[in-house]
Each structure stands twice: as C-alpha cells, then as structure tokens.
Amino acid sequence: MTALVRFGIFIRERQHWVLIALLVVLHLTLLAGVGTVVSLMCWLVDVGLFMLWQPFIQTERKLDSGTLVFIFLLLAGGAWSFGWWLLILWVVLLVALLGGRVLLVSHRPTRIFYLLAFAYLLSILLIWLVPRVVPGSALVGPSLDRPFAWAAALILVVMSLMPRPREIRLPSGGMVDFFYSLFIFLLISVLVLGSLAFMLLQQSTYIEAVFKTLVSMAAMLLLMAWAWDPRPGFSGIGVFLSKYLLTIGLPFETWLQQLMDCAERESDPDRFFYGSCERMLELPWVTGGAWAPAGGAEAGSGSFGRVSPISHDFPDQPLVFTLYTRHKLSPALVWHFHLLVKLSNEYYIAKQRARELQQMSYQRAVHETGARLTHDVKNLLQSLNNLCFMAQEPGDMDGVRLNQLLQQQLPQITQRLQRALEKLQVPQALYGGAGGAPSGETSTGKVGLVIAEVWWGALKQRYAHDNILFSPVVFDKKACLPSVLFDSVADNLLQNALFKQQHEDGLEVRMTIAADATLFSVCDSGSVVREDVVNDLLRAPVASENGLGIGLFHAARQAEGYGYALRLACNEAGKVCFELKRGGGAEVKGS
C-alpha cells in the first residue's frame, strides 16, 4: 500500500475533523477581513481542506496534469476576485453540499453534527457576510460581529466534542444527493438576493427584508406543495413532472409498441432479440450494441450498428447487453435503457420457454402415440392368440363354426390394425383434436357406430376361452355404441383384470353392459387399487408392472372425446369396478 493510499484512508476515516478544520479556517478568514493577505491565505487553505473533505473524488486519487491546471486557474481567478461576494458564493456552496448530505440521514448524532455545521454556515451568511454587501449601512442596524464571533466559535467547540458521526451513504449509492443540494442552493440564493431586493426597492431594514423574504418563500413553497397533489379532482403538477421525467427525449411508448409487434411476428428468440435491438438505432443517441449470454445461460450472441468509444453495460440479465452511444447518457436515460433491456430479456426468456414447451409437447405426443399403439398391438395380439388357440383345437367346434368365427373376427382385427396405423400417421387422433372426438368421428355423429348386440357378441367370442363372466343382457334394438372407444376400453380393462387374475387365486372377472349401451363395466373380486395409484389413475401415466402404465390414461382421454367418462366406480376389497358411462360419473367408493 503506497503512502498516498494510506493518507487517503486516514483522511476518509476522519472526515468530521476535516470539516471542523474547514469551518475553523473559514472563521479565521472572516475575522481577518477581505482586505488582508492573511484572509486570502486562509481562504486558499480552506479550499485545500474542502478538496480533502469533498465527497465527489476520492482523496487518494492521483490527479492528471489537465486537472491540476484547471484547479490552478480556478484558484488564480478566485484570488484575483477575492472579496465578500466570493465568500458569499463559497459559503452558499458549502451550505448546499451539507444540506444534500444531511437531509436523508437517520442516525441522530450524525444528523445533529451536520445540522450544527449547517446552522453555522447559514448564520455567518446572514449575520456576517450579507450585511457587508448592503449598499446603505444605515439599513443594516446594530452590528452583531462581536457576539457572533464568540457564538460561532462555541458551535465549533460543541461539534469537536461530539462523538464521531457515521459515514453517510444515501440510498442511491452516493454521498451527496444532487437534487437536494441544488434545491438548497437555489433557496439560499433566493433568500440572499430577495433580502437585498427588499432593501433596495422598499428601503426596508436588513432584518425586516430577511423576514419578508422568508415569509414570501414560505408562501410560495406552501402553494407549490398544494399544487403538487391538490386532490380535489386535479391531478397536480407531480403527475406531469413524473410523466415528463419518464418520457423526456425518449419515445418509450413507441418503442414498446414496436417491441410487442416484433414479439408477435418473430417466434425465434434470437431473431426477436436482434430485431428489437435493431429498432434502438432509431433513437438519436444510439450507434449500436452487442450482447452475449451470461454465465450458465443458454443463449446466442450478436451485435447491431457500430461500435463507439462510449459504452454502457447492463449486466444481471440472461443476455448481458452493451449499448454504444454518441455521448454519455444521463442517469435517467440509463434507467430507461435498463428497463428496455429488461423487457427485451423477459420476452426473450418467454420465447425460449415457448420453444422448449413446443419441443416437449412434440416429444410427449410421440411418446404417448407410441405407448398407445403398443397397447393396441398387444390387444390385437391377444385376439389373434385366442383365434389361434381355437384353431389348434378343432375338436371343440366343427369346421363351419370355426370358419364363421374367423370370418367375423379377422375383418374386425384388420380394421383395428388399420385404425392403429392411422393413429401413427396422425397423432392428433390419439387426443381427439382439441378435446373433441377423434379423427373421423364426432361425439354426436354416426361414423364408427355399431349395433351394441353385435359388438357384445364379438367381444364374448374374443374372450370365450378366458375366465370371464359376461352378464346376460337383452339389448334395445336401436342401441348403438362407438366400436373404437369400446374396443379400446374393454381390451385395456380386461387385459389388466386377466393379469391380476394370474397373481390372485380365485379372482372372478365380470363384465356387464346396459341395455341401451350407455353403461359398460368390468369388475373383479380381487384386491383394491393402491391409494398412491388412485390419485393419478385415469389422470396421468402410473407405475405399471406389465406395461407403460399409460393405457387407462389414454382410454380415459379417448372417452372424453366421445362424450363418455371412464372412472373407477368402486374400490373395495372383493369389488373393484371400472365403468364407462355416457356423460360423466360420480366419486370413487372405497379407499
């Protein structure tokens, strides 16, 4: 650590002593008067102490030759024009800086310390300096120089005895609020010049002129405070000022509209971000920009426009953006561009997620289509196995009955296989479009409907050699049902029941159907469906011991497309029933 850095740290840790020394030297300057060399030397020392105390440039910073020349010329001009008006301007500057530091301080001892310094400077301004420039000495009144010299010294003693104040850090990150400092500078300038104006125009005494100026300023501030937010139906000047600050020199609303238009036209995230950034070139300050992905972000990089020596970085985004401008931007414009970049990044992320969801939906469609076809092929294979089993044992039936059975079953198997291939070519048929009936059918149309009695007989023939009980039923002559849906549901439910029958001895499987074919059920006398499976059963794929666990889920969605509801109607030990019902169903009975 160099000696310069150590000295800077030493001064920064003792800022309150530097301020006290600055005020003491200023007090000596006032006591010496402006017509002596001692006063000028004290003021030059005061300027040096101010440079150590000022919060804008760090004390340990090394100044270049250009800055040193500027400071020398400034001091030379001050020494040449040294007088009471220069000291008034100097004190007003110090008061403004102190006011900008103290108004937002919450620590009480620190606030009291700086308020004492503020009161000292304001008192020497009104009691010592301004009376020196009044044209008529008769209007000044009695001199208060001697009492003020001792009273002001007492203020400096009290400040030196106070505990060390805390370092001031405003919410904006700096050590001086520029707006407050400028506001206080203007108020004190109005106070000084207004007092002189009253004395010259109305020949008032100095005390009377100060009082009139203070009353006038209070009245104007009260009127401005009321006009800022009056609330009797008028929005106030605060709204207009906020609108002005938000739109000053920047067509923000126009750019937002262009951003939304670009978001609607472009679905690719990279092309969208390039298009939105390229529209920034329409702003008069922008020459170009570049962006690159932040650490861990999956994004591309790019640039637009041309590079300029002045750049502004906008980090903490998925895309770290660098903006090149013709000149240095004000803090308000930087904030505007930060908001624009933030919006562009949010749109970029949304489009990335939309593309990922689209890919996931495609993969899900492929997976579910394959899983559904697997179930269809498995059911078809079971039907073929039944036919082969009957054909291998001709002693149980004569050749005519066997040929009749093959003539009935083989065309149905061929049609089911054809429908399975159609689903592979058009995956939307798996879902029934957007929640409607599958491709080629409507929930109210007659396409794919078969007579219920014919379908029931074919189902009994298909599972004639399995241990399944078919309840007797007398069908209505006009009862019809969608064969695609009922084949899919029946095959899924029966395959699951037969698999369960292989692992549970004495399990009985019973099938029933209503006379009008509005209700179809498959029941078994086995164990209940586990509670952890019931929650997702028919709503999502579930864990399965003999498949993908997706057959019933797709059968339920297919039923919805036809205007039916597949549900677990009963889940009790010895009675587990699934029902396919037209229109909907009730809650599950049992655990």
Automatic annotation (TrEMBL):
Cite the Gene3D superfamilies for this sequence: Histidine kinase-like ATPase, C-terminal domain (3.30.565.10)
The superkingdom of the source organism is Bacteria
**A molecular function GO annotation:** ATP binding
Q: Does the keyword Transmembrane apply?
A: yes
Q: Which residues cross the membrane?
A: 20-53, 88-105, 112-129, 178-200, 206-227
Q: Which UniProt keywords apply?
A: ATP-binding, Membrane, Nucleotide-binding, Transmembrane, Transmembrane helix
Record's protein name:
ATP-binding region ATPase domain protein
Species assigned in the record? Candidatus Propionivibrio aalborgensis
